[in-house]
Amino acid sequence: RFEPCTIKSIHRKRMPVTEVRGGQTATFALKRVRRDRVRKGMVLVSKSLNPQACYEFEGEILVLHHPTTISAKYQAMVHCGSVRQTASIVEMSSENLRTGDKASCHFKFIKSPEYLRAGARLVFREGRTKAVGHVTKVLPYTPVAPQSRSAPGRRKAHRDQSQQQQKAGDDTQDVASTAATTDVASAAFPPPVD
Description:
Blueprint: E1 6-12, E2 15-17, E3 27-31, E4 56-65, E5 75-80, E6 83-92, E7 102-109, E8 121-126, E9 129-139, H1 152-181, H2 183-188
Antiparallel strand pairs: 1-2, 1-3, 4-7, 4-9, 5-6, 5-8, 6-7, 8-9
């Protein structure tokens, strides 16, 4: 989720500056943003770019080295710009990949959505496995809206109704089991009518 923020100051090489350009390293003091809300891989992006985070993306990779074969559901670390997160291969254009093979793959991040751009270079690695490639398509993430909580009065009414239904079900079950044991009980205690 992208949120607007205000930059109080910018420092580059421990000196205050008024601006920085793409590719330069800098430190930003953000207004009203707690430190625990910021993690590696996050980006400051202009609203005009209409940024969207993605859990899934497609990329074309070339396997530089892998001891055995790579198939669907294989997980490894993806490095793409400032993004560094484990991703799983959902599907591939070929069944298996070995050293030297090239394929188009559908990836899914394991932990959280990230900001990626089509055409960005990526490195896919795990242990001695290494693959390089680029992002071909970004599939935007659309979060599922949380279920709204009902008002306290409606919750209590729903709970009372559930308890009554459960109690009625228990009474019916007791009467049915009693009726099965003796015929006199069924005549004396007819089952309740709803």
